[in-house]
Amino acid sequence: MPQLDWTRDLAVGVHDLDYQLEELVDRITLLHEVQYDLYEDVTRKTLLFLDEYVTRHFHTEEAYMRKYDYPQTELHMGEHADFKENLNRLKLDFARRGTSPMYVDLLKNNLTKWLYNHIAKRDLELGRLVKAAIDKSAVHRREELSTPALQPIDLTITERNVNSY
Ligand SMILES: [Fe+2]
Questions:
Q1: What's the gap in Å between 141 CA and the centre of ligand 1?
Q2: For residue 134, is it within any domain?
Q3: Can you tell me the distance from the alpha carbon of 92 to that of 103, in angstroms, rounded to the nearest whole number?
Q4: How many domains does the chain have?
Q5: How far is the CA of 27 from the centre of ligand 1 (A)?
């Protein structure tokens, strides 16, 4: 599996999307580096983070899909729904049996798969579309500002403006 610098290679130049990606990558890195005595704490915090992630990040993306008429909305949201379902299974498992080296591996594998199968494909595609749309509207705004609308000139000859010559 090729090693990627996730935050650099998958950033799209849209602040909220890039920030949310960075947060997730930080959590995955932490899972890889955690020492055994901190498994419980890190597992709990990762699951809490993921709960927030599925609400906040999915909401951000789904709002962009609506705003920019993203053609793959159904497919993309279907994968979000699958991830939520999977997260619920992981939470249930943790609630029943607690954490363990196997559980931490399972969590790492699930999140790494999510990075490769969803973020590196669907999120990247959506993020690039959003970035292009934002850039395009910024160019339009700049063009509008740099070419003020021409004001019609009053060419009617009246006594008052004839006398002014
Ligand atoms: Fe997504």
A1: 29
A2: yes
A3: 12
A4: 1
A5: 17
Region for 35 from its dihedrals, namely left if φ exceeds 0, alpha if ψ lies in -120 to 50, beta otherwise? beta
The DSSP string of 4-40 is --HHHHS--S-HHHHHHHHHHHHHHHHHHH--GGGHH
CA of 122 relative to ligand 1 center, distance in Å: 6
Tell me whether residue 62 is in a domain: yes
Tokens of 141: 């705004």
Residue 46 domain-assigned (yes or no): yes
Instruction: Note whether residue 152 is domain-resident.
Output: no
Task: Give the C-alpha separation, 118 to 46, whole Å.
Answer: 19
Q: Give the residue numbers spanning the domain of 71.
A: 38-145
Give the Å distance between the CA of 76 and the centre of ligand 1: 6
pLDDT tens digit sequence for 43-83: 999 999 999 999 999 999 999 999 999 999 999 999 999 99
